[in-house]
Hints:
The chain has helices spanning 7-15, 28-57, 60-65, 84-94, and strands at 76-80, 99-103. It is built from four helices and two strands; from the N terminus they run αααβαβ.
Amino acid sequence: ITALDQVSDRVRGLEAGADDFLTKPVNDLQLMTRVKSLVRLKSLTDELRLRASTTRNICIEELLSRNFASEDTTPKVLLIDERKSSVERIQKMFRDRADLDVTGYPHAGF
């Protein structure tokens, strides 16, 4: 939050690493809305980092990078996920690389 209100001041602030730029006087509703937006962005960033870390830990990247065309068998993958959006994304990742069996019910997979 600053009293500076010129476009050049905004550009300089954002280039210096600011996530947002509010000029005085500050509207309370505008401030709270922007704070909520930044908190949501932080949560999504944390989730993406966690998913990337999990992917590395369970070696999915290595599995996807392998060329299975030269092998006799296609790997089989069991996916248990209740979220349709996740299932669709993962199906695209494994397309033509593995035999993917999908279920939304954990007990059905076993």
